[in-house]
Amino acid sequence: IASAREAARTAPTLEALRTLMENFDGCALKHTATRLVFADGNPQARVMFVGEAPGRDEDIEGLPFVGRSGKLLDRMIAAIGLDRSKAYIANVIPWRPPGNRTPTPQETQVCLPFIQRHIELVNPDVLVTLGNPSTQALLGTREGIMRTRGKWIDYDTGTRTIRAVATFHPAYLLRSPSYKRLSWQDLRAIAKVLQ
Ligand code: URA
């Protein structure tokens, strides 16, 4: 297990990383999930979105954000003036947790080197974390999304610094649509940086 995580840190390409993850046996979630949900969109994109973990629809299709939250994420991407062919999308956890429960801290720690290398390989100009779990796992903040959203944070890959920003998770916006206004503020700020 430790060696697979070590190998992830140096996977030379996205394809190599995907193969490593498909062969990885150190995360229990893999055994209850239908399949690996690696990523969607364009690996050359300038902006990368990272969510929490696949849900039911994603587990079936093998692609991130294809269910209801995914439809809203598409609208968030459109608010930046882009679509999925000009954005890249992945999750911190690549296997669906049973019944969509929140991943445990241990599961998150086990999977973290994969998404970290994933980000390093895509090397976007802007990294957008969606919601608390993704933001806390990747940006190392302890504060909640209300405080962290919309603030630019340096994300250090070890070789490069990427501009990162958190915004609300689309599933949260579906439950609390009044926060869409703030999220759209964040998206406008992202569009500006990408200009
Ligand atoms: N929620 C997430 O965080 N990721 C998905 O892929 C789908 C829903």
Automatic annotation (TrEMBL):
It catalyses: Hydrolyzes single-stranded DNA or mismatched double-stranded DNA and polynucleotides, releasing free uracil. GO terms for molecular function: uracil DNA N-glycosylase activity. Keywords: 4Fe-4S, DNA damage, DNA repair, Glycosidase, Hydrolase, Iron, Iron-sulfur, Metal-binding. Its EC number is 3.2.2.27. It comes from the Bacteria. It is an enzyme of class 3 (hydrolase). Residues 38-188 form the Uracil-DNA glycosylase-like domain. Belongs to the uracil-DNA glycosylase (UDG) superfamily. Type 4 (UDGa) family. This is Type-4 uracil-DNA glycosylase. It comes from Bradyrhizobium brasilense. The lineage of its organism: Bacteria, Pseudomonadati, Pseudomonadota, Alphaproteobacteria, Hyphomicrobiales. The chain holds residues 75 to 269 of 273 of the full protein.
